Amino acid sequence: MAVLEGKVALITGASSGLGREFALSLSKNGANVILAARRKNLLDSLCDEINALANQSEGKGPRSGKAVAIELDVSASEPVIDAAVEKAWAALGYIDVLVNNAGLRGPVRTPIDQEEHEWNAIFNTNLRGTWLMSKAVSKRLVAAKRGGSIINISSIGGIERGLLPGGLAYSTSKAAVIHLSKIMAMELGHHNIRTNAIAAGLFKSEITNDLFQKEWLHKVATKIVPAGKWGAVDPDLTSLVILLASDDSQYITGNTFIVDGGQSLPGLPIWSSL
Asked: Which Gene3D superfamilies does this chain map to (predicted)?
């Protein structure tokens, strides 16, 4: 069922990892997607893949959405980001859904050895980029008198404790993203713009791929994840993104959805104790 047919979704960090999976899933459920990331070659490849699926679906039941690609670094200046969003809006006529997925974890650092330039780079991408993308899309939604859905990808590291040791800047930035989402929900709600955050546990992506190569990681899953296993981006995260992008979530805003198999529950072992 093409539950998102007629919707247009802009996904940042779409060239790989979670963003790629979100883009594929949204398009398979009928949304036309705008792929935004720094690596244009990967964007173009994904764009071709999605458009091929869309062409194959023509006349065969639920329609897959099509894709366009826009090169964008969310840590760029506000005028650059605003111009990219204007280009995206013009490309497909409007934007209904914004998935702020682009993120940077940075090197493992303790509070003592965290470098200022590393801190700034992480916050520029994870927090400032999320704010500026939301601002650019929201002001166009308001001007066009259209409602919309903003989905901010955070982390369980931003809820209570770090996802992994040495993630001071990352976890702090993701906590800020959660609070940003709540304030945006309060202040944009009367414009029919919904804002929600997803606090994701540990999922395989480009920035965690090295971890998932380690055998010990899978052995500790049963100790720190009540579900007894690590999640799969599709469907464990994509199903929630589809819901929040759809009209079935018209009364859902200001929430932080924890998707981690129970890993953040109180009383469970943390990484540093294993």
From this structure: NAD(P)-binding Rossmann-like Domain
pLDDT at position 167:
87
pLDDT tens for 231-242 read 899 999 999 999
Q: Which residues pair with 35 in a beta bridge?
A: 11, 69
- H/E stretch holding 33 reads strand 32-37
**CA 239, 247, 251, 103 torsion: positive or negative?**
positive
pLDDT at res. 66: 97
Token readout for 160 is 């209570």
Instruction: Quickly list DSSP for 127-171.
Output: IIHHHHHHHHHHHHHHHTT--EEEEEEEEGGGTTS-SSTTBHHHH
The answer to whether the predicted template modeling score (pTM) of the entire model surpasses 0.85 is: yes
CA 272 to chain CA centroid, Å, is 27
Domains of the chain plus CATH, in order, are 8-273 (3.40.50.720)
Task: For residues 251 and 154, give the distance between their C-alpha atoms in angstroms, rounded to a whole number.
Answer: 21
Residues 6 or more apart from 153 whose CB is under 8 A from it?
18, 99, 100, 101, 103, 177, 197, 198, 200
Chain center to CA of 16: 12
Residue carrying structure tokens 């006529």? 93
- Closest by CA position to 245, among listed 182, 198, 175: 198
Annotated catalytic residue, options 170, 208, 253, 264: 170
Tokens standing for residue 56: 């194959």
What is the Cα–Cα distance from 62 to 60, expressed in whole angstroms? 7
Q: What is the 3-state secondary structure (H, E, C) of 248-273?
A: HHCCCCCCEEEECCCCCCCCCCCHHH
Within its chain, how far is the Cα of 127 from the centroid? 12
Establish whether 251 is a catalytic residue: no
